[in-house]
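Format notes (please read before filing issues)

Several people have asked whether sequences and structure tokens are stored in separate files. They are not. Every record keeps both together, in the order shown below: the sequence lines, then the token lines. Line labels are part of the format and must not be stripped during preprocessing.
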Amino acid sequence: MLDTVLLEKPVTVSVEEDFGHGRIEKRTCYAYGELGHIEHRGEWRGLATIIRVEAEVYNKTSGESTKDQRYYISNLPPDAKVLNQRIRKHWAVENNLHWTLDVEFGEDKSRKRAGNAAENHNIILRMAMTMLANDMPKNVSKKTKRLKAALDFKYREKLWIF
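Then the structure lines:
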């Protein structure tokens, strides 16, 4: 399917460049909206666009460059500029969530591997993170709230009541 898409001409193309964290990143987004040739298209309810993002990253410190291609499907119109921004925002949210789970809860150090243990543990961590984030006052760190929850039964009980 992807080879077929590449034979088509994208409806729109958008290029974004970011400079920061010691690197230069260029993301080129191609939005393909002519999808009549795709087999089994009807099985993808609402499919409107196939997206290809090419990312080139130059690391200023090492002088090395990397290139990457990612593909997405969407029910949004083929507007490469909008899609490029939305994809970027999505990954920012994902990366922030992962960072929080790792820093606040040490998720990357977890050795849970058997069966569904890792997935179940991740769900519990996300629930705990949400409870701590929703608790007032907002200006108290999650670390402080976690310690208080470990030591104070009443506070722990308060967190569970949504």
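For reference, the curators noted about this record: The longest helix spans residues 80-105. The beta strands are 12-20, 23-32, 49-59, 65-74.
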